[in-house]
Amino acid sequence: MRIFPRDLETLWTLFTAPVVWAVHFLACYLTVAIHCAKGGGERQFAMLQFVLGGVTLAALATIAISAFLAWRQWGFGTTDPPHDDPTEEARKLFQGFATLLLSALSFVAVLFVATPLLAIDGCFS
Amino acid sequence: MAAALLSTFLLSACTGPQSVFGAAGREASAIEDLIVVTAVGAACAWFIVTSLLIYAGRVRRHRFAEETAQRFITWGGVVIPTVLLFALLSYALWSMPATRPWFDRQQADLEIEVTGEQYWWRIRYLNTSGDVAFETANELKLPVDRRIRVSLKANDVIHSFWIPALGGKMDMIPGRTNTLWLEPTRIGSYRGPCAEFCGTSHALMTLTAIVMTMEDFETWRQGRINKSPTSADAGAAFQRNGCPACHAIDGTDAKGLVGPNLTAFKDRLRLGAAANTRDNLFRFIRDAGEFKPGAQMPAFPMIPEGELNAIVDYLAGET
Ligand SMILES: [Cu+2]
Is A89 helix (H, G, I), strand (E, B) or coil? Predict the structure, then answer.
């Protein structure tokens, strides 16, 4: 008896990008909130902006990789959607295409989440 | 006809003493700009999408080529909306320092503390060392073109301070002090409602902000600080009927802190949510609950009419 099927079909590739988006969102908002709640100073805030800028780049890179893998799974766009045949192949292509679109959405979302970092220059107390 | 009706509805809310669109303060102007830019942006998007919908459904009734449709979706459905949203977001973020300005305490020209109470506003003007110079209620006098630091507090439940013509809204929370910076730019009188439901008379909890020239403001302020004592006789009826237990009148023995400070009450424009007339004053003292259901001031049905008139004379500055 095996617990996992031999050919592991997983939806996690599909979810990677949105999960990165969610984690990045929490990283940004929670860090700034905690920093300010603890009476964070201006110098440290600049540092925080720098670190979160790095986190943002890492998130964008991860999403870009996920997008590339999805693009590959979709056969680099050689066939057109909707991929709705009842075959294993169509399912694979469909998942690849859906993952690619989700990655694009997540990429833009991460950018939107990060832009306030450029506009905020410290904590209010 | 419908358009006329709609525009009447829309425009009727756009002027008057309690409107975001009649900005009379720095922060309010920034908020007005933000609303206009985002609303115009949204209206353009709505207009274009609706036009395309009508075009596709009514005018052009045959299919697009696959390729054209694809390109249209990519640009019209993905690229343009993303760029447009990003532009609006950037504009909103860029305008943040103006829509909620923040300064160091030393940069304040004047400091005021406003406390929300069921169902009135306690207003304290502070002196330069941060101590209370004098107290008043429900009428906020402000000098024009000065930077004013307003500390917001609450005594009982959550209230919310909002004078749309001067700036944005900020909650008043028991046990906390929130800070709001106001910078009025136009002389006039503006209305502010309590913007957080706080009890039966919430809707009657209103505040009047009076923006005046610096000279007028200074004259008024000095007058309040150097309030000369009134003769003890004049306030005898006020004293006799227990009003000083809750009300203070500067320069007299009345030092109660439960209710509004009634110094120079005759100069106030409004009483509760009504006009400050002798008749209203008489009825308010008789039964405050008639004006403001649930008001924390007891009714005084037992005060004889002559006695009550003497109190009204006194508060109306006629003795
Ligand atoms: Cu209230």
Answer: helix
